[in-house]
Amino acid sequence: MRTLLVVDAEGFSRHRDVQLPSIHTEIRRVVETACERSGLAWEAVRLLQSTGDGLLAILPLDAMIPLIHPFLDHLQNALADAAPKLRAGGVKLRMRVALHFGLVDDEDPVTAGISTATNDVSRLLDCEPLRAALRDSDPDVTFVAAIVSREAFDTFVCSGRTTLRPSQFTRVQAEVKQFNQVAYLYVPTPSRREQRDDPPEGGGSDAPAPTPAGGPSLGNVSVAGDGAQNAFGNQVGGDFRQVRP
């Protein structure tokens, strides 16, 4: 059994092509930093694969405990510390994280990393509840949103093996393609994105103008009344009252 860690940068492809290699390097740096601060030696990683906009790491099973906590909190802090310098260079870096464990080969030179467990952790990373956790949060406050598989949650959180309590997680339904399983969200520094109440461009409203109090005019007959009103040929529908001049 192995622990699987997958990280992904939000909006990676929105950056300029020339920025992408340096962003990927920064992803590796903050993940390594968070590992070291959590007491996890980076050398413990048994297999590391680049996903372009993130990383897939396979570690020993006992690495799951520090990865759930304090790694996720340290990753949040490392990204928050890096944010001012990255913003100065026109880069925004926030990350989704998925954690799972299962059977996976980490030694075969050709097929290492190919397994159902790897597929499952990738589906967790892509699920809408995890994406929404970042999308609906303040981008200057929340830098990490994580999802933990049900198996990992039951085995390591509910059993008391981590310092986080089950109440600090949110149960969600992770559904991606044929994958549909319960999982658990954890956001180290939660926030909510402020809703803008600005009017549409032009300062106007999209709502239709109210019908004048006198009502529409049909020939020399004014029509007044409340509610929906319509007239087609000589048929009238709605609450109409005729007002003759």
Gross geometry: globular
| Overall mean confidence score, pLDDT | 83
CATH topological fold name of the largest domain:
Alpha-Beta Plaits
Output the strand order for the largest sheet: 2-3-1-4-5-7-6
CATH first level of the largest domain: Alpha Beta
Through-space gap between termini = 88 Å
- Assign a percent range to the helix content: 25-40%
Domain tally = 2
Strand content range: 25-35%
- How many distinct helices? 5
Low-confidence stretches: 197-245
The profile of the biggest β sheet is: 7 strands, mixed
What would you say about this model in short?
This protein is an alpha+beta fold.
Give the helices and strands, then pairings.
Blueprint: E1 2-9, H1 20-37, E2 47-50, E3 54-60, H2 64-88, E4 95-102, H3 116-126, H4 128-135, E5 144-149, H5 150-157, E6 170-176, E7 179-186, E8 217-218, E9 221-224, E10 229-232, E11 235-238, E12 241-243
Parallel strand pairs: 4-5
Antiparallel strand pairs: 1-3, 1-4, 2-3, 5-7, 6-7, 8-9, 9-12, 10-11
Describe this protein's structure.
This protein is 29% helix and 27% strand. By secondary structure, it is of the alpha+beta class. It has 2 domains: 2-186, Nucleotide cyclase, GGDEF domain (Alpha-Beta Plaits, 2-Layer Sandwich), CATH 3.30.70; 214-245, no CATH class. A hairpin with a 2-residue loop joins strand 10 and strand 11 (235-238). The model is unreliable at 197-245 (pLDDT under 50).
